[in-house]
Specification:
The complex is a heterotrimer of chains A (327), B (257) and C (354). Chain A is an alpha/beta fold. Chain A has two domains: 32-188, 3-Layer(aba) Sandwich (Rossmann fold); 200-325, Rossmann fold, CATH 3.40.50.1980. Chain A is 40% helix and 15% strand. Chain A contains twelve helices and twelve strands. The radius of gyration of chain A is 22 Å and the shape is elongated. Chain B has a six-stranded mixed β-sheet with strand order 6-7-8-3-9-10, with helices on both faces. A four-stranded antiparallel β-sheet of chain B has the order 2-1-4-5, with helices on one face. A two-stranded antiparallel ribbon of chain B has the order 11-12. Classes of the chains: A alpha/beta (327), B alpha/beta (257), C mainly alpha (354).
């Protein structure tokens, strides 16, 4: 009996690694995870993603392909702060029993000291979750969960707004809150559209989005960058990313020469930056954004997550534009 | 400078190298310390020059060595070591100029006087034509002269030489020792040397001290110390000592002759 | 016994006026280029007039916009000055170490300066103390403390082991201390992986300035350490013949050793504290200088100071313009351009010797 189990786990291991490797080459192989713990290669193409009913089992697509959930998960462990926000926003909060140490919204979520970055497999297993949602898991943790039959759903950082919407939909399907999820997406879209309408007629401009005090920024190829483009704001970092990383470090000279109309600070929490500190930086008093008080302090979390609160980010941007127009 | 050595003992670590040495060395004399290898000659010289610690008293013109500060010491005594460390790519003139170190001020900047003094020494020793060459490029004999030049640039009253002739051929040996003797006679320097070559010791020294096992077992004129029975005992060698006039020669004998 | 210096060969090599003028010129050029060249194109003639405008009594409109002027005075100038200071410190510190240890491979990071600073910096970054208001920046202080403690331990342990005058025990102690610091640093890094980016960029070296803070921070230490090293450079020439012979020449070798090591370590530690670990400068610049002027420390130390300053500020120029507007870490530039340059000099000199 032992020998068969050993062979089974080896096969399982290979079966896990193989599709991951193939996935990275952008093929359309898919694996099916069943709650019983074995994995088989599916010969089918992409599974049916359009299931509207909330009856189980359901198939959802996630970062590693497709995932089949046998029953409604009621002991969800979220290792991603964004996923936590989404889950609670779509009414699945009662199904979430634990979240990672970085999840802090909405208030009152069941925080643990499990780190989303360096999770401990035994601690997770000890909690006996029936679904783990994450934005990053080391491979051995993935395998560990799979070998015990715990489904894990990978929701990697969304690069585009469309991906964020899809993640919300998928979490809705997975947790049996399809309707709420649809409603959330619809309201997000309409809110965003309203904000875009508000911004029409307002003068656009250039902006600098600061990640930390050493002038790391984001380009329009990131989700946060995309948000700004919706209302016609131009990102000065777009011209300074020769490697296309999406997260270039700007030189101070370049920043000054660009003289952005708006400065958005996404490092108020992590790095204790503030409007006053930025104004006091040597040489920055010549910037028009400093002289016209167009420096906006953002909430670090809102500026770095891809959940429902991206709308708030857009609102801050539009308010900044309105304030400038009002002068 | 007259030197009085009283009950000097030197230990390195726990080991006593030099036992109870008592010597009187008159001014302007040349003392050669002879003896088998490992008898403590170098150690005694280092102690007398103040480079290592010793017990007992060493008086230079009745001035206690221990009371001298390092600069004062270096203005009085110069040492030509057995194996001098020759820095790569240092020119002769700069090397010899190092001898003026004890006279330099805080900034270690040589004055015109220092430079003039050095130049004079180089001139006296016929080293001016090689003054711009690297010391490391010189032949053994030239190098030894340069090292002696550096020592003389310290304007010492006592000159210590530790085996100055080891690596030299017979011509250079003579040249070097003649040079030193000339300095002794013209500038009044007292010379203390460790010499393993008995002939040279006999020819140039005014007094000889025989060291065996860290002890000075005989001290006197070359005639007194270098005789056949003493040598045979000390060195376990077969020798013949020939006197001619005021000088003596030591000739090793082979077999039974 | 007066000698006549004008007769026969001049036998003392000093820092002649020719050398002083040359080095001054090189410095001026490096400084001006540092103000003129950058990721943002600003016309050199306008910069020149802008500089003139700041002379008392001179009133010229340079044609620079406010922002361009801000770039020149608030961004480029402090950074250029910092580059000069750090480059000079690293170079003269390297030359001094090489003199004390009589070893051409001695570099200013030898006695644990680098490893200690790295540990200090990592701890500061990991503890979050490097965020917030830049006026009292914890990072340079922590790096400097780390250096000082590491060197202190090395000197204590290495100097205490055997009262011998050999420097071997110092070097070995330095190796041991460096290994220990690196091990602890690695552990701290592992505990908090979000620090990796910051630590890594610090390790590669970066001349980043927030106004004059960094310059003011390093200046007092720079002045003290450089003054001491320049005063002791003659004694390093005496040390070249070994410690025993130096003693016979009236030097007190231990005293010289501690003073020079102390000053050189202070220089290196303060440089590392504000700019990270910029490698190569402390080895390449003194060697290049030696190839041209010979081994006399009396010449090598001051010339290393000046040419090290010029070298680093030119390297920084390249670092911030080559991949503009992105920046190369300056440690990469010094290695990249320094090593072949050195090989070239070596080759041309060896050809002329043979």
């Amino acid at each position: 009996m032992k020998k068969i189990r050993k062979i089974k786990s080896i096969v399982a291991l290979i079966a896990v690694l193989l599709p991951i490797w193939v996935m990275s080459a952008c093929s359309s192989n898919s694996t099916q995870v069943e709650a019983s713990g074995t994995r088989t290669e599916s010969g089918m193409g992409s599974a049916d993603k359009e299931l509207k009913s909330s009856s189980y089992p359901v198939t959802v697509s996630h970062g590693f392909g497709d995932l089949v959930l046998e029953k409604k998960p009621v002991r969800i462990l979220s290792l991603s702060p964004t996923a936590t926000e989404i889950l609670f926003a779509i009414g699945a909060g009662s199904q979430v029993f634990a979240v990672d140490d970085q999840s802090n919204y909405p208030l009152g979520v069941p925080v643990t000291n499990i780190s989303g970055w360096t999770p401990n497999l035994e601690a997770i297993l000890g909690m006996e979750p029936d679904l783990v949602v994450h934005s990053y898991l080391p491979e051995d943790i993935e395998d560990g969960l799979a070998s015990v039959g715990i489904p894990s759903m990978a929701q990697f950082a969304a690069g585009r707004l469309a991906d964020a919407y899809q993640q919300i939909e998928m979490l809705g399907i997975a947790t049996g809150n399809q309707v709420n999820a649809d409603q959330l997406v619809t309201s997000m879209k309409s809110n965003i559209q309203a904000l875009v309408d508000r911004s029409k007629g307002l003068r656009g401009g250039t902006f600098y989005h600061e990640l930390d005090q050493t002038f790391y920024s984001i380009t329009s190829s990131t989700l946060v960058g995309e948000i700004y483009t919706l209302v016609g704001l131009e990102n000065i970092a777009d011209g300074a990313d020769p490697d296309g990383t999406g997260y270039p470090q700007l030189s101070e000279e370049y920043l000054l020469a660009q003289d952005p109309d708006f400065i958005f600070l996404a490092d108020t929490k992590c790095c204790a930056q503030s409007i006053d500190i930025v104004k006091a930086r040597p040489g920055w008093s010549t910037l028009s954004a400093v002289q016209q008080n167009a420096i906006i302090e953002l909430d670090d979390d809102i500026a770095s997550r891809w959940g429902p609160r991206v709308v708030e980010l857009l609102m801050v941007a539009v308010e900044a534009m309105e304030q400038r127009a009002g002068r | 400078m007259a030197i009085k050595v009283e009950n000097v003992e030197v230990s390195i670590g726990a080991k006593k190298i030099v036992h109870r040495v008592n010597l009187e060395i008159p001014s302007r004399s040349w003392l050669s310390i002879i003896g088998p290898n490992g008898s403590g000659k170098t150690t005694l010289i280092r102690a007398l020059a103040g480079l290592i610690e010793s017990e007992g008293k060493i008086l230079y013109d009745n001035e206690n060595l221990r009371l001298l500060r390092s600069k004062q010491r270096a203005q009085r005594f110069a040492v030509v070591p057995q194996n001098a460390l020759i820095p790569p790519r240092m020119k002769v003139n700069n090397y010899v100029l190092l001898g003026r170190t004890p006279y330099l001020g805080r900034g270690f900047q040589p004055t015109n006087e220092d430079i003039g003094f050095t130049r004079e020494i180089l001139n006296n020793l016929n080293l001016l034509d090689i003054a711009h060459r690297y010391v490391s490029d010189l032949s053994g004999g030239e190098r030894q002269k340069v090292i002696i030049a550096r020592a003389l640039t310290q304007d010492p009253t006592v000159l210590f030489l530790d085996e100055p002739t080891t690596a030299l051929d017979i011509g250079h040996q003579q040249e070097v020792l003649e040079l030193v003797d000339r300095q002794r006679k013209t500038s009044g320097i007292t010379i203390i040397s460790a010499l393993h070559d008995l002939n040279l010791a006999a020819q140039y020294s005014t007094s000889v001290a025989l060291m065996v096992g860290g002890r000075v077992i005989r001290h006197g004129t070359p005639m007194e110390v270098i005789n056949e029975s003493v040598l045979e005992q000390t060195y376990d060698a077969n020798v013949q000592v020939i006197k001619h006039g005021n000088s003596i020669s030591v000739i090793p004998k082979r077999g039974n002759s | 016994m007066r000698g006549d210096r004008s007769q026969g060969p001049v036998i003392l090599q000093t820092l002649s006026f020719r050398w002083i003028a040359t080095s001054g010129l090189v410095l001026l050029i490096a400084a001006f280029l540092g103000l003129v060249v950058g990721p943002v194109g600003i016309r050199p003639d306008r910069v020149f007039f802008e500089i003139l405008d700041h002379f008392p009594g001179v009133n010229i409109d340079s044609g620079l916009s406010n922002i361009e002027a801000a770039i020149v005075w608030d961004v480029r100038l402090p950074r250029m000055v910092l580059g000069l200071i750090v480059g000079g410190l690293l170079a003269i510190s390297g030359a001094s170490y090489q003199g004390v240890f009589r070893n051409p491979l001695a570099d200013p990071y030898l006695l644990g300066v680098a490893a200690g600073a790295g540990l200090g910096a990592t701890v500061a970054i990991a503890s979050g103390a490097t965020n917030g208001d830049g006026i009292v920046d914890a990072l340079p202080i922590a790096a400097f403390l780390g250096s000082a403690i590491a060197v202190g331990i090395t000197l204590l342990v290495g100097g205490a082991v055997g009262k011998s005058t050999s420097t071997a025990s110092l070097l070995l102690a330095g190796v041991a201390v460096a290994s220990l610091c690196t091990a602890i640093q690695t552990y701290v890094q592992q505990q908090d992986s979000t620090t990796l980016r910051q630590v890594y960029s610090w390790i590669l070296g970066r001349l980043s300035t927030s106004g004059w803070n960094e310059v003011l921070m390093v200046l007092p230490y720079a002045i003290i350490s450089v003054t001491v090293m320049l005063l002791m450079r003659g004694s390093l020439d005496v040390l070249a013949v070994g410690e025993e012979e130096a003693r016979s020449l009236g030097l007190r070798p231990e005293r010289v050793r501690w003073i020079v090591i102390g000053a050189a370590s202070l220089a290196a530690a303060s440089a590392v504290a504000v700019s990270g670990l910029i490698a190569f400068v402390g080895i390449i610049v003194p060697h290049a200088v030696r190839l041209v002027v010979g081994t006399s420390n009396r010449m090598v130390l001051p010339l290393s100071l000046i040419f090290g300053a010029a070298f680093l500020s030119l390297a920084d120029l390249i670092a911030r313009t080559l991949q503009s507007p992105a920046e190369l870490p300056i440690g990469v530039v010094t290695a990249f351009f320094g090593a072949p340059f050195f090989l070239f000099i070596l080759r041309s000199r060896s050809e002329s010797i043979s």
